[in-house]
Amino acid sequence: MIGTLGRKIIFEVSDDRAMTFRDMTRDISGRWAEHEVLGRKPKPEFLGPANQSVSLTITLSVSLGVRPRNVLEAIEGMVEAGTAEYLVIGHRTVGKNPFRLTASSETWDRVYSRGELSKATVTITLEEYT
């Protein structure tokens, strides 16, 4: 197993199934305020850490043992329910807190004659939930 996003999204490669991600980006930043001082440069003040964000792209293909529509529906449900889950990669959590799915963008790459979705690409956006 490569990792998980909660219990519904499992990244793995096995004899029967391959579901992986690519282009994962993680943004970590701090929150700062600037106080204006008359006749002088502004004074910065560190307010604390900002929420981290993660974006990653997942390829879903029937030929790799994945049912694209089922995974897309699970992701849709997580986005619309405001679900927050831990992102685990290589048995280590990413960040200290769970992440909420704030958005997903799907591309239906291959659809067969009866409307069966056989290949899709989805990019999900996660934001730290504290």
Topology readout:
Blueprint: E1 3-5, E2 9-13, E3 18-19, E4 21-27, E5 30-35, E6 43-49, E7 53-61, H1 68-81, E8 84-85, E9 87-89, E10 92-93, E11 99-111, E12 117-128
Antiparallel strand pairs: 1-2, 1-9, 2-3, 4-7, 5-6, 7-12, 8-11, 9-10, 11-12
Please characterize this protein's 3D structure.
This protein is mainly beta and 130 residues long. The chain has one domain: Elongation Factor Tu (Ef-tu), domain 3 (Beta Barrel). The chain has one helix at residues 68-81, and strands at residues 3-5, 9-13, 18-19, 21-27, 30-35, 43-49, 53-61, 84-85, 87-89, 92-93, 99-111, 117-128. The strands form 3 sheets. The chain has a 5-stranded antiparallel beta sheet. The protein has a 5-stranded antiparallel beta sheet with strand order 4-7-12-11-8. Strand 2 and strand 3 (18-19) form a beta hairpin. The protein is elongated. The model has no long low-confidence stretch (mean pLDDT 96).
